[in-house]
Amino acid sequence: MEDERLRKVSSLQSFVSRPELGSVFGLAIIVLTFMSLTTVSGTFSAMWTNPIGIQAWVELAAFVGILAIGASLLMIAGEFDLSMGANIALAGHSFALLLTFGVPVLPAILITFIELAFLGFIMGTIVVRTGLPSFIVTLGFWFASRGFAVFLSQTLVNQSRLSVKPYLKPPAGGGEDPTLIDNIFAFDKAFGLPFDAEVYYFAILVIITAFMLHRTRFGNWIYASGGDAQAARAVGVPVNRVKISLFMISTCLACLLGVLTVMTSGASDPKAGDFRELHAIAAAVIGGCALMGGYGSVIGAVLGAFIFAIASRGINFVPFIDNNLFRVMLGMMVLGAALLNQFLRNRVLRG
């Protein structure tokens, strides 16, 4: 009988300790709230059943969610990357410049990914070798990436916004084979899919990273690096290599969005990704990632991205609420999520 009670308590503690628990309730609350508000305002169908309305918040969730995946992995390892949004602009400008100078699409994509991966390697190396807080290091790279993107384009072609439509082949509807590599980042148009390409990449990335985090040795190393780096080193975890790898993953995810943005819009934008790093970190926090590391999940960050997107787009469907209140709402959600996660963790630790 005693063993049975202990098993029940253990199962309950295991359930309550899940980092995404708070975001599950948060998502349910935000969905019910905006369903009620849109019903009252007569815009329910516009947001929840109309394809354009659904597209608006699903695509935003995917965009923020891709960054939130990188943010959550770094936060679990006890680090931050504030340069993610700026790296979207840097990747987009780099890709557009390569196309402008006649580099074919596939080599341009590969070169851009190598460039951003190397940038992540530099950031990670500085963090682990100097001991400087990643907050400071990546803040510096935020300024550097944003400024360098504009400097490159204005210096080399005297334009801050680069149009690349003449250098991109049309999607399959224009007569091209949809299996060509040129259409890999625009396959939504090539095959007439309902959402932008980032939604499908987002789904693939969620599956891959969730599996990696919870079913592989590297995932265990990430948790160990953020939980107690010294203890992790003592048992052979390559903490420095893990953290450098995560910075490289973060910059590559930003690169993916930068390339997707250019392929979708046909131009690079120096303001691309503005504030998106904060949105991604907010999604990760709402999703249960601890600010001090060692706790969190990719699934929670994904749910956090959907909470962010539904609140962000949903407020536009409620005419009697000022749109400017969204940031107030987001701030309260981040604070509430952090307090809830701290409360749940303390309850579990106390048994």
Main features:
mainly alpha; 351 residues; 0% strand
What is the string of helix and strand elements? HHHHHHHHHHHHHHH
Helix and strand content put the structural class at: mainly alpha
Overall pLDDT metric: 86
Largest sheet: none
Number of helices: 15
Residue stretches low in confidence (pLDDT < 50, at least 5 long) are 1-9, 172-181
Q: What distance lies between the first and last C-alpha atoms, to the nearest angstrom?
A: 19 Å
Q: How much helix, percentage-wise, in residues?
A: over 70%
Overall shape: it is: globular
Radius of gyration: 21 Å
* Residue share in β-strands: under 5%
Report the strand count: 0
Secondary-structure topology with pairs:
Elements lengths: L1 H15 L4 H21 L2 H5 L2 H26 L7 H17 L4 H26 L3 H23 L30 H4 L6 H19 L1 H11 L1 H6 L4 H27 L10 H11 L11 H17 L10 H26 L1
Concise synopsis of the structure shown:
The chain has helices at residues 2-16, 21-41, 44-48, 51-76, 84-100, 105-130, 134-156, 187-190, 197-215, 217-227, 229-234, 239-265, 276-286, 298-314, 325-350. 72% of the residues lie in helices and 0% in strands.
Explain what you see.
The structure is a single chain. The chain has a domain at 58-295. It has 15 helices and no strands. Helices cover 72% and strands 0% of the residues. The model is unreliable at 1-9 and 172-181 (pLDDT under 50). The longest helix is centred in the C-terminal third of the chain and has 27 residues, at 239-265. It has 351 residues and is mainly alpha-helical. The radius of gyration is 21 Å and the shape is globular. The two termini are 19 Å apart. Part of the binding-protein-dependent transport system for D-xylose. Probably responsible for the translocation of the substrate across the membrane. It comes from uncultured alpha proteobacterium HF0070_34E11. It is a multi-pass membrane protein. This is Xylose transport system permease protein XylH.
